[in-house]
């Protein structure tokens, strides 16, 4: 029997798919969706538009005669998605994916009970698609927060940090396999270890940095309230050559009253302190943040505070999301802002972000930079990353480190040509 996996959403889902792919390969032939008898849909439930897209996809697959196993966040967020599927497995039940596939052929079943599973113990069964030089490792699941707008908490639950030794063992294994970029992912990397009584991210990064080999590590999203508490230790850990100087720190709003209504647990000042400390410590830091526009408590004045915050702190990447009420969350009970206002605010922020991104990238024109080639691009090009994780379109071989001269740029990437070797 042939089984395929379709993955939606974040890098955590991609890491979960690697585990399920390895488990399924022991019993079934892995294939593309067209040839598959059963399709595992690893779903995302961050916004309602994604939920609707996945539900339509489930219907299409069913109409084409395929069995569908629903995995990912929608198993605990969307009753409709679960009902339409033949079987369902929640994120903390992915080790039961084989049973779910067999059950989909015989009446179906749902594995969505709450469990504590240390996913680092699956490092030896993971089956990655060897398409590039990138490997993803989950370091924890769930979070310590209770954001008023977030439905992911329903799916992922409270924080469970995975074994530090197990994570390091997986890093050692994948470096030996030839992967050169390691992406550490979770719902909040800064909270790693808090369920065990202490902040452990700096220690984890130091342990990973001691692993032999030439590789780079991208640390995933961390919330400001945790980053600010471990700032000195965090910067010391990031000082390793093996850690990209990449900081994904979502502020969500530039207005403290909105942040309080969101129940974010941090202030604008926390965000600014972390960003400024990183920029003082390193020659180049790529700063990424998230902004929600049109949140119910966002007044016109609050929106412009977000605008000014971006203009003053000049992040390189801003993920702009129009507020979307999620069933069961406190924010869904609030009066929503008209869609045209959200769209206009999003447009204004997007224009600003593109302007800032272009100005930031122009600083690198004519410079010589060391990059790691991570994946193939279009038209015989490759995607490479600088030490701060800036994207560079150039030529080269996947997995190699090389020097490039920056010749051009856009707001979201650099262009470079291979540099001549220094004599």
Helix and strand arrangement:
Layout: E1 2-7, H1 11-24, E2 29-30, E3 38-43, H2 48-63, E4 67-72, H3 74-77, H4 79-84, E5 87-89, H5 97-104, E6 110-111, E7 134-138, E8 140-141, H6 152-156, E9 160-161, H7 164-176, E10 181-185, H8 201-209, E11 216-219, H9 224-227, H10 231-238, E12 246-248, H11 256-262, H12 268-281, E13 286-293, H13 300-313, E14 317-322, H14 339-362, E15 368-376, E16 382-385, E17 391-394, E18 401-409, E19 414-418
Parallel strand pairs: 1-2, 1-3, 3-4, 4-5, 5-6, 7-10, 10-11, 12-13, 13-14, 17-19
Antiparallel strand pairs: 8-9, 15-16, 15-18, 16-17, 18-19
Helix pairs in contact: 8-10, 13-14
- Choose one word for the global shape: globular
How are the strands of the biggest sheet laid out side by side?
2-1-3-4-5-6
Oligomer: single chain
Query: What is the domain tally?
Result: 3
Uncertain ranges = none
Strand content: 15-25%
Radius of gyration, in angstroms, nearest whole number: 22 Å
CATH topology of the largest domain, what is it called? pyruvate-formate lyase- activating enzyme
Number of helical regions = 14
Quickly give the structural class: alpha/beta
Estimated helix fraction = 25-40%
What is the correct CATH architecture of the largest domain?
Alpha-Beta Horseshoe
CATH superfamily of the largest domain: tm_1862 like domain
Largest sheet: 6 strands, parallel
Distance between the termini: 58 Å
CATH class of the largest domain: Alpha Beta
Any overview of this molecule?
The mean pLDDT is 96. The protein has helices at 11-24, 48-63, 74-77, 79-84, 97-104, 152-156, 164-176, 201-209, 224-227, 231-238, 256-262, 268-281, 300-313, 339-362, and strands at residues 2-7, 29-30, 38-43, 67-72, 87-89, 110-111, 134-138, 140-141, 160-161, 181-185, 216-219, 246-248, 286-293, 317-322, 368-376, 382-385, 391-394, 401-409, 414-418. The protein starts with a strand and ends in a 5-residue tail after the last strand. The chain has 14 helices and 19 strands. The chain has three domains: 2-111, Rossmann fold, CATH 3.40.50.12160; 132-362, tm_1862 like domain (pyruvate-formate lyase- activating enzyme, Alpha-Beta Horseshoe), CATH 3.80.30; 368-418, OB fold (Dihydrolipoamide Acetyltransferase, E2P) (Beta Barrel), CATH 2.40.50. The strands form five sheets. Strands 2-1-3-4-5-6 form a six-stranded parallel sheet, sandwiched between helices. It has a five-stranded mixed beta barrel with strand order 15-16-17-19-18. The protein has a three-stranded parallel sheet with strand order 7-10-11. The protein is of the alpha/beta class and 423 residues long. The protein is 35% helix and 22% strand. Strand 3, helix 2 and strand 4 form a beta-alpha-beta unit.
């Amino acid at each position: 029997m042939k089984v395929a996996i379709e993955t939606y959403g974040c890098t955590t889902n991609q890491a979960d798919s690697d585990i399920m792919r390895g488990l399924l390969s022991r019993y079934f032939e892995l294939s593309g969706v067209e040839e598959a008898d059963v399709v595992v849909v690893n779903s995302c439930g961050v916004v309602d538009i994604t939920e609707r897209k996945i539900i339509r996809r489930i219907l299409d697959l069913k109409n084409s005669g395929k069995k569908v196993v629903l995995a990912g966040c929608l198993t605990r967020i969307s009753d409709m998605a679960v009902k339409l599927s033949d079987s369902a497995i929640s994120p903390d039940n992915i080790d039961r994916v084989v049973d779910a596939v067999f059950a989909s052929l015989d009446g179906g079943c749902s594995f969505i009970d709450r469990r504590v599973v240390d996913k680092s113990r699956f490092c030896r069964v993971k089956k990655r698609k060897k398409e590039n030089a990138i490997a993803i490792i989950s370091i924890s699941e769930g979070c310590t927060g209770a954001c008023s707008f977030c439905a992911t908490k329903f799916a992922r639950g409270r924080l469970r940090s995975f074994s530090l030794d197990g994570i390091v063992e997986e890093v050692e294994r994948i470096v030996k396999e030839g992967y050169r970029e390691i992406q550490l992912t979770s719902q909040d990397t800064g909270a790693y270890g808090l369920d065990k009584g202490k902040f452990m991210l700096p220690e984890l990064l130091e342990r990973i940095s001691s692993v032999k080999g030439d590789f780079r590590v991208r640390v995933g999203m961390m919330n400001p309230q945790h980053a600010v508490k471990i700032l000195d230790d965090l910067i010391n850990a990031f000082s390793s050559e093996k850690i990209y100087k990449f900081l994904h720190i979502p502020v969500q709003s530039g207005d403290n009253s909105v942040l309080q209504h969101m129940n974010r647990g941090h202030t604008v000042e926390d965000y600014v302190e972390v960003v400024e400390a990183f920029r003082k410590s390193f020659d180049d830091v790529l700063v990424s943040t998230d902004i929600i526009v049109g949140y119910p408590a966002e007044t016109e004045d609050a929106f412009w505070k977000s605008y000014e915050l971006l203009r003053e702190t000049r992040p390189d990447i801003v993920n702009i999301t129009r507020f979307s009420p999620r069933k069961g969350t406190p924010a869904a009970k609030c009066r929503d802002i008209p869609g045209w206002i959200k769209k206009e605010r999003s447009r204004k922020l997007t224009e600003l972000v593109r302007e800032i991104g272009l100005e930031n990238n122009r600083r690198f024109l004519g410079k010589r930079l060391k990059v790691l080639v991570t994946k193939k691009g279009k038209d015989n090009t490759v995607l490479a990353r600088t030490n701060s994780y800036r994207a560079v379109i150039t030529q080269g071989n996947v997995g190699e480190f090389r020097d490039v001269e920056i010749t051009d740029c856009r707001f979201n990437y650099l262009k470079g040509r291979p540099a001549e070797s220094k004599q």
